[in-house]
Design goal:
The protein has two domains: about 30-285, ABC transporter involved in vitamin B12 uptake, BtuC, CATH 1.10.3470; about 300-330, no CATH class. It contains 15 helices and two strands. It has helices at about 1-25, 30-55, 65-80, 85-105, 105-110, 115-135, 135-140, 160-185, 185-195, 195-200, 205-235, 245-255, 260-275, 285-300, 315-330, and strands spanning about 150, 155. Strand 1 and strand 2 (about 155) form a beta hairpin. The protein starts with a helix and ends with a helix.
Amino acid sequence: MKHKNWNIVKRIGITLFILILCIFPLVDTNSYHHIILNQTLVNVVVVLGLNFITGLTGQMNLGTAGIMAFGAYSSALVSTKLGFPVLVGLLVAIVIGYLLGRVLGFPSLRLKGVYLSLTTIGFSEITRLIITNWTTLTGGTMGLQNIPSISLFGYVLDSSTKVYYFYLFIVIVLCFTASRIIKSKWGRVFKAIRDNIDAVEASGIDVAKTKILAFTLATILGCLGGAMYAHMMNYVNPTTFTQDLSANFLAMMMLGGIGTVPGNIIGSSMVTILPELLRFLENYYWLIFSIIALLFAIFLPNGIVSLFTGDRRLGRFWITKTKKGESSHE
């Protein structure tokens, strides 16, 4: 009964949260706030992908910036150089993501831990150097300018508010899909590979195929997020896709909660929005944000979402802590 009631509360909470997100642009008409929210939605898409390979499967991926760059530049080039509609560019980015997943998935079959991390870092840096030096195609350090906004059957999303609602729809669909995948057979196998790969192999499951699948899901969403970013900003350049960006996505996933869709949303929102809220501190805002993030990492190692799930569900956390204290005194 308690489990059923908790599910009802979750559904009501999710519905109210979506309603608030839908109403917010109508209440707050500040376009800068809309841009921050749009960036948050893009980050959610990318982190949802990173969660499949790093959060669920346990394969460290530090090449998210390179993956995102591939999506951003492929969609932008198709739209600007070839003159195809933006939706075609988005589809091309998804196809590029699929192909990248097949290619990057193979190193994960032989490499683990720090070696796999170095491989993905190398991929990201090679990508950045290519788009920096291939000036005739990518514009080099000047970047690609005048990237067209998304157009849906003639309706151009030429304002931050229009982009917000379209991106919100995409995020809602992807969050629902990611949640279903995590609860499906695929999700259970991903977690099993992370927790005990030897047992998975002994069960007759094709570990190689599953790892490549996880990488493919991560790269598809990463490239889609990159394409969304390019058409939101109407401009991209290589300095955006540095190793710091990959580290930020990893921080989003870890602070929110590894392996969970709500954790991905919370982490992406926190790392994107909180620094902006601390701007009034001027030169000290990033220091304060780093301290806050460090405190969350120390006291909530399973992410902020652990306050609402499992043994640390809000309200039960303090009860459990109190009981442990009483038993130790006895």
